[in-house]
Amino acid sequence: EAPLSAVAHTGEREVETTLRPRTLDSFVGQPRVREQLQLVLESARKRGVPPDHVLLSGPPGLGKTSLAMIIAAELDTSIRITSGPALEKAGDLAAMLSNLAEGDVLFIDEIHRIARPAEEMLYLAMEDFRVDVVVGKGPGATSIPLEIPPFTLVGATTRSGALTGPLRDRFGFTGQMEFYTPEELEQVLKRSASILGIAIDDEGRAEIARRSRGTPRIANRLLRRVRDYAEVRADGVATLPVVRAALQVYDVDELGLDRLDRAVLDALVRSFNGGPVGVSTLAVAVGEEPTTVEEVCEPYLVRAGMLARTPRGRVATALAWEHLGLQPPPEVGR
Ligand code: ADP
């Protein structure tokens, strides 16, 4: 199966579908976003109109797609799913939009990666429920206005800063997704273990929760790897020693950092003496795309207090040096 990162991989979709919470009440954590959404949905329901467009922002694996599906379920409508990179031409988006039924939810994942012509078409669609379809080329080209039924756009992004102003302004509400606490992840794991029929005790569950980088997708994935280990090398029950041994095999360290996280810290500390260093330089040093380092890796390292983003570049904190077993230089802050 896929590496243990926060990004979803092919083959994982099916398990994720089984494990997805279906109602706002069974959605664990994110109390702020949940309350805000509840108000948006409830008020739209009272007024009998589709709710404002919603933007969900946050690192991968925190439940943005799940929430989009829940929004559609709570509204009792269907959801159409696409992504920014899939909308290369305005025509791709026009086709999606013209297939919507009144009140549908259109989910666009990675909306910050939408191509310019499609983005411009989206402005009008979001605002006036209308698109202008251009027919023909050159001087003979005409634009035909096409009405589309009122719908709710739910956009997801790992980088709300990369959205253009005009696009951001057209969302009525932005939900900022936060990393989950270990206690919340324990709840997620409890539910997943019972759905998948995995035998795990409280201590084992707490250990996975603590080492899942605050991310439900990772917690669920580690749970399945621990199950494998428990079935093959133990008596099938995921106890604390079994969880610890399994996580060691899968290269998940004491703090839940995976190989890429550690590679980034290692490069930052050893090759750049703790920084500051630009994110592109750092990415080259670990052989990754800058966007992966920035959107997948860094948010958790920042949250864990090991990396700081400064105007001059990325800087390792004393905690990062210590985590790598090194003595931080005297000038390094915490
Ligand atoms: P994103 O779209 O932010 O990358 P997803 O919505 O695809 O994240 O969530 C990934 C997986 O994590 C889901 O399949 C689901 O099993 C689990 N998950 C995410 N958020 C929650 C939650 N709040 N409660 C329970 N499970 C969750």
UniProtKB/TrEMBL annotation:
Sequence intervals crossing the membrane:
none
Cellular component per GO? cytoplasm; Holliday junction resolvase complex
Annotated positions binding ATP = L19, R20, G61, K64, T65, S66, E127, D128, F129, R170, Y180, R217
Q: Where does DNA bind?
A: R309, R314
Query: What's in the keyword line of the UniProt record?
Result: ATP-binding, Cytoplasm, DNA damage, DNA recombination, DNA repair, DNA-binding, Helicase, Hydrolase, Nucleotide-binding
Write one Pfam family the protein is assigned to: RuvB_N
Per its UniProt record, what InterPro entries does this chain match?
AAA+_ATPase, AAA_lid_4, DNA_helicase_Holl-junc_RuvB, P-loop_NTPase, RuvB-like_N, RuvB_wg_C, WH-like_DNA-bd_sf, WH_DNA-bd_sf
Stretches the record annotates as Small ATPAse domain (RuvB-S): 181-251
Per its record, the protein catalyses: ATP + H2O = ADP + phosphate + H(+)
The EC number(s) attached to this protein equal 3.6.4.-
- Give an example GO molecular function: four-way junction DNA binding
**Assembly behavior:** Homohexamer. Forms an RuvA(8)-RuvB(12)-Holliday junction (HJ) complex. HJ DNA is sandwiched between 2 RuvA tetramers; dsDNA enters through RuvA and exits via RuvB. An RuvB hexamer assembles on each DNA strand where it exits the tetramer. Each RuvB hexamer is contacted by two RuvA subunits (via domain III) on 2 adjacent RuvB subunits; this complex drives branch migration. In the full resolvosome a probable DNA-RuvA(4)-RuvB(12)-RuvC(2) complex forms which resolves the HJ.
Q: What is this protein called?
A: Holliday junction branch migration complex subunit RuvB
Native source organism of the sequence: Saccharomonospora viridis (strain ATCC 15386 / DSM 43017 / JCM 3036 / CCUG 5913 / NBRC 12207 / NCIMB 9602 / P101) (Thermoactinomyces viridis)
Q: Organism classification, top ranks?
A: Bacteria, Bacillati, Actinomycetota, Actinomycetes, Pseudonocardiales
